[in-house]
Specification:
The protein has 216 residues and is of the alpha/beta class. It has one domain: 2-Layer Sandwich (Nucleotidyltransferase, domain 5), CATH 3.30.420. Helices cover 39% and strands 21% of the residues. The chain contains seven helices and five strands, in the order αβββααβαβααα. The protein has a five-stranded mixed beta sheet with strand order 3-2-1-4-5, with helices on both faces.
Length: 216
């Protein structure tokens, strides 16, 4: 019999067996098939014995541009990334994704969840680049759902009336340093804080666990 007070059981039941993993990707353009992935960060989440969601493990990689993909100068100027800088310590796409997949599979086993789900701000963008990199790397056993996401832009629009990450964080009472924005690690940290606050706020308001409706 399951002990539903245990954190792993609480997490696996909270999102219908999905294991949320917060991802942010910095790129050299907007087209996932033709523009390079340059930076990726991932944060797994955990739930305590009272059902409050928080950050768990963190991974962050600078990524070498995949050969033949385009680097748009406008995108590089926007995110401040110099792909040719040897001090980046960049790794290839497959190495970064393999490490993230390994971490995620460990979390799946620990939590009792059955599939990872990407959490991101404007999640379609990050998922498209991650799926394109997975296809190029020919990696097997992708733990992420191929198209379902939790989009904090949409959730923030509903809960906070804001869709821009910086404004949503500020409205939620989370500090946001614009000078650090567009770093995959920083944006992932703030997106994770935001997602946990949205989920925990719903719990504080009495929206979770679900209660049986009372009919009069």
């Amino acid at each position: 019999m399951h002990d539903f007070n245990k954190p792993n059981i609480l997490l696996s039941n909270r999102f219908r067996g999905f294991y949320p993993v917060v991802i942010d990707i910095e790129t050299a353009g907007f087209d996932a098939k033709t523009n390079a992935l340059l930076e990726i960060a991932a944060i797994t989440l955990k739930m305590d014995s009272h059902g409050w969601l928080g950050k768990d493990a963190i991974l962050h990689f600078h990524v070498k541009p995949f050969p033949g993909l385009t680097l748009h100068p406008e995108a590089l100027a926007f995110n401040g990334i110099d792909p040719g800088n040897p001090l980046r310590g960049a790794v290839c796409e497959s190495e970064a994704l393999h490490a993230i997949f390994t971490l995620v599979r460990q979390g799946l086993n620990k939590s009792g969840c059955n599939r990872a789900i990407l959490v991101a701000h404007n999640a379609t963008f990050d998922l498209s680049f991650m799926n394109a990199a997975i296809a190029r790397s020919n990696l097997k056993r992708n733990p992420f759902h191929p198209f379902v996401t939790f989009d904090t832009a949409a959730l923030s629009g509903l809960v906070l009336g804001q869709t821009v990450l910086a404004k949503a964080c500020t409205t939620a009472g989370i500090s946001f340093d614009n000078s650090q924005a567009h770093s995959a690690l920083y944006d992932t940290m703030q997106t994770a804080e935001l997602f946990c606050e949205l989920v925990n706020r719903w719990k504080r308001l009495g929206g979770w666990p679900l209660t049986q409706a009372v009919h009069v």
